[in-house]
Write a sequence for this structure.
């Protein structure tokens, strides 16, 4: 115990079992602390589960169409509250989203067609800054990660541009986590 106390004195604090050794200035002081262990359990937080769920009722369904780089239309059933980037990932549509919706890139850049652009919320300044980095920018450009589905967006068409700016130069295509 004495050698253990000496090694603890060299440090600021050392815990041995239920005894705490604390060093104060130039002398070692031993304090005994009784620990009462309280265990708490909570339901596990599963972040992102909402995006991977199907609509629970027909009232929640929002039908939209993605047009991929090859011009192929893919009709998708989303739900109210879905993020268009995550919805594309769920349906295996090639919309990258390198920053995972944190507004740090422009790889989920899309064109909003059919007059739905005015029905979207105004873009934040951060989104506009990222859009400035997007190639082939148009007046109807938005980031897919910032489009949240509502019932009034029923029938919206999102066109994926023919190219995006990302950090990969070797042709690697990242997969969503």
């Amino acid at each position: 115990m004495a050698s253990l106390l000496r090694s603890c004195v060299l440090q600021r604090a050392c815990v041995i079992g239920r005894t705490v050794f604390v060093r104060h200035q130039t002398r070692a002081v031993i304090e005994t602390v009784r620990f009462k262990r309280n265990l708490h359990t909570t339901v596990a937080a599963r972040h992102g589960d909402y995006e991977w769920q199907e609509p629970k009722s027909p009232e929640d369904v929002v039908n939209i169409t993605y047009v991929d780089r090859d011009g192929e239309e893919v009709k998708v059933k989303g739900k109210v509250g879905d993020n268009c980037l995550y919805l594309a990932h769920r349906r295996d549509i090639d919309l990258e989203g390198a920053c995972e919706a944190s507004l740090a890139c422009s790889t989920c850049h899309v064109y909003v067609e059919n007059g739905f652009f005015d029905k979207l919320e105004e873009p934040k300044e951060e989104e506009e800054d990222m859009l400035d980095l997007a190639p082939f920018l148009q007046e109807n450009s938005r980031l897919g990660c910032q489009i949240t589905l509502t019932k009034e967006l029923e029938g919206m068409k999102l066109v994926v541009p023919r190219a995006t700016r990302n950090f990969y130069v070797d042709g690697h295509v990242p997969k969503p986590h």
Summary: The longest strand covers residues 61-67.
